[in-house]
Design brief:
The chain has one domain. It has 20 helices and two strands. It has helices at residues 2-7, 12-26, 34-46, 56-75, 80-83, 89-100, 104-116, 133-157, 164-171, 173-176, 180-201, 204-225, 236-251, 260-280, 302-317, 322-331, 335-343, 345-351, 364-395, 398-413, and strands at 284-286, 289-291. It starts with a helix and ends with a helix. Residues 55-378 form the Acyltransferase domain.
Length: 417
């Protein structure tokens, strides 16, 4: 281990040579003698292991999608959409912003698959890490922290409104389903190994068939007839499909074929199709099913799904500047905290629900500026709050505790867990 640390400080040319030696040492199948075997181990120890380069464009998209979530909630839950006069310019622009941001949580689900998919390691002796238990435990503790923490804050703001039973409800977030996204993600987490294997071992033709089925059956058909209990996208099933799509986008490098200008054009087109249908007021009934004018405004809508995938592709290709990379690296780990704080019941009631009804009758430019400004400030505040939470977790040695639990699980259940 000490030798590995020292290798990081070698000059660049020696590091390159070390990587080549590392690869050779890892692939020594049957050494001629014990001395050769020992030499191979020594080379593997000294040479630094090759690292995957982190995609900060994807991390930037995490933050950007949370900004979109705030736009959605400000206009929707905030009361702007319900109170703007139908047919007015304020109504049209508010809905255009809402639809443009509607793929936010889809993007977050797609990113889970894009980041979570890893093919089976090729190096001999490298076990496939099936589940990263420590990551889930850390996320679960973060969810509990914000759920209980927001309860305590509300107890100060409104004494007597929160009971012990209310606080206890947030201690068990999955059992009580207090955050639908985290509950659905928990299900996805435990089937990730199967999802990853499915993506890895499916050929191009089978993968293409799957994507066609998802689009035409689970997106297009279910948007109009709602027969598969996808709950408009608020479900484990839909999140699992997004995970698979995100993994497929990564495996087959969609970003090599769809460049940002084309992706942006597609996003604009999908937004206008959904918005145009809504503004037209077109609705109809077929086979005893009522199709409303806002039928394309849902997470499972084909237009919203395509838009979300295009955002993922843009994120995969985006190369932030050095300064922006430092900012993204600093803030991206707190992206999920934005959702946790914003949708916690008490924070929702205090800071979001019908708090922007007054904005619906104001000039359109004010609606735009207030919505964007409030969303930006809210996201920034939550990201900074999460830096404090992360510092507290480090102080309490939470990462070490979750890592120890993971090691214990692997020791008990096998290295391949």
């Amino acid at each position: 281990m000490e030798q590995r640390k020292q290798a990081k400080h070698l000059p660049d040319d020696q590091q390159v040579e070390g990587k080549l030696l590392w690869r050779k040492a890892r692939h020594v199948d049957e050494p001629a003698d014990g001395q050769t075997k020992a030499a191979g181990k020594a080379l593997a120890a000294v040479a630094p292991s090759p690292r995957r380069e982190r995609n900060y464009g994807i991390d930037f998209m995490r933050i950007f999608s949370m900004f979109y979530v705030l736009i959605l909630h400000t206009l929707g839950a905030g009361g702007v959409l319900d109170n703007a006069a139908a047919g007015s310019f304020q109504y049209a622009v508010s809905w255009l912003m809402e639809i443009g941001a509607y793929g936010a949580l889809n993007v977050f689900g797609l990113i889970s698959g894009y980041v979570g998919y890893r093919p089976t390691p090729k190096e001999p002796g490298q076990p496939r890490r099936v589940l990263k238990i420590s990551s889930y435990l850390s996320l679960w503790l973060e969810v509990v922290f914000y759920g209980v923490g927001c309860c305590l804050v509300y107890m100060v703001i409104a004494p007597g409104k929160v009971t012990g039973a209310d606080v206890l409800r947030w201690v068990f977030p999955v059992s009580n389903g207090v955050y639908w996204f985290f509950t659905a993600y928990t299900g996805v987490f435990f089937v990730m190994p199967l999802l990853n294997l499915a993506v890895e071992h499916c050929d191009r033709r089978t993968t293409a068939v799957f994507l066609i089925v998802v689009f035409f059956v689970f997106s297009l058909f279910d948007t109009f007839f709602t027969r598969f209990d996808l709950e408009g996208g608020y479900s484990f099933t839909w999140l699992a499909m997004l995970y698979l799509i995100g993994a497929i986008v990564k495996k087959y490098r969609f970003s090599d074929y769809v460049k940002p200008p084309l992706a942006l054009l597609g996003i604009v087109l999908m937004t206008l199709v959904s918005w145009g249908w809504l503004m037209s007021g077109f609705s109809f009934s077929v086979y005893d099913t009522d199709v409303a004018k806002d039928v394309l405004v849902s997470y499972t809508s084909p237009t919203i799904l395509v838009m979300s995938v295009l955002y993922l592709i843009i994120g995969a290709q985006f190369k932030p500047s050095k300064t922006l990379t430092k900012i993204v690296k600093f803030l991206a780990p707190g992206a999920f905290a934005v959702y946790l704080i914003n949708t916690q019941d008490y924070m929702w009631n205090v800071g979001m629900s019908d708090r922007f009804v007054w904005l619906a009758s104001r000039p359109t430019i004010l609606i735009i500026l207030v919505t964007l400004g409030f969303s930006l400030v809210y996201v920034a505040a939550c990201l900074l709050i999460d830096k404090a939470r992360a510092w507290l977790f480090r102080l309490l040695r939470v990462p070490q505790a979750t890592a120890a639990l993971e090691r214990g699980c692997r020791k008990s259940l096998g290295r391949g867990l």
